[in-house]
Amino acid sequence: DQQVKQNSPSLSVQEGRISILNCDYTNSMFDYFLWYKKYPAEGPTFLISISSIKDKNEDGRFTVFLNKSAKHLSLHIVPSQPGDSAVYFCAAIIQDDKLIFGTGTRLQVFP
Amino acid sequence: NAGVMQNPRHLVRRRGQEARLRCSPMKGHSHVYWYRQLPEEGLKFMVYLQKENIIDESGMPKERFSAEFPKEGPSILRIQQVVRGDSAAYFCASSPSGRRIPGEQYFGPGTRLTVT
User: Fold this and answer.
1) What is the pLDDT of residues B11-38, one digit of tens each?
2) CB neighbourhood size of B116 (10 A)
3) Cβ contacts of residue B98 below 8 Å, gap of 6+?
4) Chain A environment of B104 (Cβ under 8 Å)
5) How many angstroms separate the Cα of A63 from the Cα of each of A20, A59, A84, B10?
6) Quick one: pLDDT band at residue B1, thresholds 50, 70, 90?
7) Which chain B residues have a beta carbon less than 8 Å from that of A32?
8) Touching check for A44 and chain B: CB below 8 Å?
9) How far is A40 from chain B (nearest CA, A)?
């Protein structure tokens, strides 16, 4: 039972353009959503989060949007940079407990 | 302040042997989580521990797997009688009490277990 889904396994974007990574979830009890970034041979690192009572959170080049009625969230990166090339995981939690991860989207930013 | 440390980084075991994976959380962190990542999949929660207590082990297989976080020393994930299907990357994460952002966890580099 995949409660958090990332349906695009990969995304390729030109440097300077916007990257949009998508995530869907099924459990309406999730109260916080997070994005983690992972480079090869390293552990994931926290990127940005959003509470379920909000619909947008912005931090520099990164913005996360939440659409609760559609059970959908997205991460926007603008402008995209080559150093953003990594695997991005969407994750969700209930009551600050364990993270439920999606399967990840591999982003490649090319010059 | 050193990050989360995991060792070994790579571990090769034959079927039937035991695997012990160690995790030292960040200084001052009292919460430890273990996750497993199978090839081409996301990370799957296994167990959540605080010092000397297992808080949530709902993701742990019922047999052969155990975890501890003693009062002194690192957290240990133990897999007895390993099978090929246990081959995966095992990540440990830690977080402090009273964390500012719910769900913000600090991950170690992982231990890649290969069962031959």
Assistant:
1) 999 999 999 999 999 998 999 999 999 9
2) 10
3) none
4) 34, 46, 49
5) 10, 6, 14, 36
6) low
7) 102-103
8) yes
9) 10
